[in-house]
From TrEMBL:
The keyword Transit peptide does not apply. The lineage of its organism: Bacteria, Pseudomonadati, Pseudomonadota, Alphaproteobacteria, Rhodobacterales. Residues 36-393 form the Nitrogenase/oxidoreductase component domain. Gene3D superfamilies: Nitrogenase molybdenum iron protein domain. It comes from the Bacteria. The keyword Magnesium does not apply. The gene is bchN. This is Light-independent protochlorophyllide reductase subunit N. Pathway: Porphyrin-containing compound metabolism; bacteriochlorophyll biosynthesis (light-independent). It catalyses: chlorophyllide a + oxidized 2[4Fe-4S]-[ferredoxin] + 2 ADP + 2 phosphate = protochlorophyllide a + reduced 2[4Fe-4S]-[ferredoxin] + 2 ATP + 2 H2O. It holds the Pfam family Oxidored_nitro.
Length: 435
């Protein structure tokens, strides 16, 4: 049932605080620290239960995936590596023929595969292996049982969350057409978090609702001019553009991190579908209260503390908004690999003026600014965390924020806890050292 009445008001920044949408952005173009985009496979292969990710790369790519996933030697996961040997790299073999042989063998052994992704890597891109042509040829060969797509997971000049963006963007052109009025949730979430979101939307009377990526190919997922979509991740710029090319319309909103972000995200959807304010409050009141209590408890160690974000996951701007507005922290610098105002503009409206906004990275210059600022907490990649810890700075691994369930009301306290634990640990170590 859909309730039609005055749409709920969109939350605005407090009157005394100007947002950061028009703040000048420090553009950085220099040496940068990145984590490989192939790591997106680690959460995507768990999400899409009839898909297989075949990385066309080197033994280094295979070792990375095995190490990142922690896969047991006897397990048969839904990803693997077609290893480029010396003969492939030297052009002594026909890499297209070799790849087709590997795919035929894989699909013969694994009858459960319905979607096969050929994932490009640094080595395959260096030798200009045309995976798009290979995917088109193999898809025609194995249709309709298996759909073969390709995307790049290369870590050259990208950040690791772009792997998911490239994967979802590659899926969009192959989706069936529909004229049905529907909501599409876009972004890979842990199943339990996705189920919570779907339950909230169902309780609000909003539907039908589809999810990209779907757990199974035969989910009925389709897109068209009457599709409106809401992003759950701020790093999906390519997917956003691909959906708009299919005629879908984006619902701009803050992202569902913390109580405030989740409420604003839900209100954007509720406004689109004409949900009555009283009904909205009735559905969200209890989980909102739980989230506020959980955040307040976890944020005791954060209030009044400063935070400095290195560019890593593209979650930085929404997380800075959450930490400053809900946890009482002060953001000194918020660095992001890319700042796409079409995606994070509403977050910038809520983020109070004050921090330096930086796009891209020149790692030595940013390290200098971080050392000069001496923040209470530094959010950065694995390669920078240990050296900064050795210099006496408390750090938070940015990649953990991608692998951990942190979206929507029930995870709001856990999200605050991810930031408060490093500070509590630092305090305990200082107390032990003083004794």
């Amino acid at each position: 049932m859909t309730h039609h009445a005055r749409p709920p008001d969109r939350p605005h920044p407090p009157a005394q605080a100007r947002g950061c949408r028009d703040t000048p952005i420090l553009k950085q173009r220099g040496q940068h620290e990145v984590f490989c985009g192939l790591t997106g496979i680690i959460w995507l292969h768990r999400k899409m239960q009839d898909a297989f990710f075949l990385v066309v790369g080197s033994r280094t790519c295979a070792h990375l995936l095995q190490s990142a996933a922690g896969v047991m030697i006897f397990a048969e996961p839904r990803f693997g590596t077609a290893i480029l040997e010396e003969g492939d790299l030297a052009g002594l073999k026909d890499a297209q023929d070799e790849l087709e042989r590997v795919v035929v063998d894989l699909l013969t052994r694994r009858a459960d595969i319905r979607q096969l992704f050929l994932v490009g890597s640094c080595p395959s891109e260096v030798i200009k292996l045309d995976l798009a042509r290979a995917a088109e040829r193999l898809s025609a060969k194995f249709a309709p049982k298996v759909r073969v797509l390709n995307y790049s997971g290369s870590g050259i000049e990208t950040t690791f969350t772009e792997g998911e963006d490239a994967c979802l963007a590659a899926m969009v052109p192959a989706l069936p057409e529909t004229d049905a009025r529907q909501l599409l949730l876009v972004g890979a979430l842990p199943d339990v978090v996705e189920d919570q979101a779907l339950d909230l939307l169902k309780a609000l009377g909003i539907g039908p609702v589809s999810v990209l990526p779907a757990r199974h190919l035969e989910s009925g997922l389709a897109v068209g001019p009457n599709t409106v979509f809401a992003l759950t991740q701020p790093f999906l710029g390519g997917t956003h553009a691909a959906l708009e090319r299919r005629g879908a319309r984006h619902l701009s909103a803050p992202f569902p991190f913390g109580e405030e972000g989740t409420t604003a995200w839900l209100q954007a959807v509720a406004r689109e579908f004409g949900v009555d304010q009283a009904h909205f409050d009735a559905v969200t009141g209890a989980p909102r209260a739980r989230a506020r209590r959980a955040v307040a408890k976890a944020a005791d160690a954060l209030r009044g503390k400063s935070v400095f974000f290195f560019p890593d996951s593209q979650l930085e701007i929404p997380l800075a908004r959450f930490l400053t507005r809900e946890c009482g922290m002060q953001a000194l610098e918020v660095g992001a690999p890319f700042i796409h105002k079409g995606l994070v503009g509403e977050e910038l409206d809520l983020l109070a003026e004050g921090p330096t906004l930086a796009e891209g990275q020149d790692v030595e210059l940013q390290l200098d600014r971080c050392r000069a600022a001496r923040p209470d907490l530094t959010v950065c990649g694995l390669g920078l965390a240990n050296p900064l810890e050795a210099e006496g700075l408390a750090t938070k691994w940015a990649i953990e924020l991608v692998f951990t369930p942190v979206h929507f009301y029930e995870q709001a306290g856990d999200l605050a806890g991810l930031f408060s634990r490093p500070l509590r640990r630092r305090n305990l170590l200082q107390l032990e050292a003083a004794e």
